[in-house]
Amino acid sequence: MLTVHHLGKSQSERIVWLCEELEIPYELKHYTRDPVTMLAPPDYKALHPIGAAPVIIDGELVLAESGAIVDYILAKYGHGRLVLRADDPDFVQFLYWFHFANGTLQAGMGRLMILNRLKLAEDNPMLLATRVRIDRIFDLVDARVRDAEYLAGSAFTTADIMMGFSLTTMRYFQPYELARCPNVVSYLGRIGARPAYRRAMEKGDPGMALLLS
């Protein structure tokens, strides 16, 4: 059976959510962050050489990287669900936003988090430039979900699953005021209403307040 090793408040929530959307059998193993360092515990780090979440085990396979895991699960268990075919008019949008999640949004928020932890002066050029870039990124997402129900268009896809963590739980590590992005707030309301999302978050991070606004 597929085993999802889930580190609380991490990108591995994407994998729990995907499994719930697909309604496939899986075993969930939960790990809690160190309360002081907020890092993964040693037994989680031992699962994979890079020591980061998420990690799945499927038979003899041990796989990390959330995007790779999403693609693997869809290829093996998805039966064409939650993705768009290359001949779909919205395929390019699907592809773009799926990769935008980690390639642009998550990377940008991670960079800002590190810069903020360095306690740089407020007028530091790198810090200011990064903040401007983050605003531009969120503005782009806001414009997209103003014009479309979901990121790929009218259909909910894995692009939404990939983006969900960075728009929500990542804000525990790098806060961002969503009041300036009303369309993102409305979009997260649609996401948060999905039964599979609710099941996934309750199973993976029970009791955690969901940052949907």
Write up this protein.
It is a single chain. The chain is an alpha+beta fold. It has two domains: 3-82 and 198-204, Glutaredoxin (3-Layer(aba) Sandwich); 91-194, Glutathione S-transferase Yfyf (Class Pi), Chain A, domain 2 (Up-down Bundle), CATH 1.20.1050. It has eight helices and four strands. The chain has helices at 13-22, 42-45, 66-78, 91-117, 125-147, 158-167, 182-192, 195-204, and strands spanning 3-7, 27-31, 55-58, 61-64. The chain has a four-stranded mixed β-sheet, with helices on one face. A hairpin with a 2-residue loop joins β3 (55-58) and β4 (61-64). α1 packs antiparallel against α6. The longest helix has 27 residues, at 91-117. The termini are far apart. 33% of the residues are buried.
Task: Specify the helix fraction band.
Answer: 40-55%
What gross morphology would you assign?
globular
Could you tell me the mean pLDDT? 96
Strands, total number: 4
- Please work out how many helical segments DSSP would assign: 8
Q: For the report, how would you describe the main beta sheet?
A: 4 strands, mixed
Strand order of the largest sheet: 2-1-3-4
Helices and strands, in order, run as EHEHEEHHHHHH
Low-confidence blocks of residues:
none
| Distance linking N and C termini | 36 Å
Strand proportion, as a percent range, falls in 5-15%
Rg, nearest Å: 17 Å
What is the correct CATH architecture of the largest domain? Up-down Bundle
CATH topology of the largest domain: Glutathione S-transferase Yfyf (Class Pi), Chain A, domain 2
The CATH C-level name of the largest domain is Mainly Alpha
Q: Structural class, from helix and strand content?
A: alpha+beta
Provide the domain count. Answer: 2
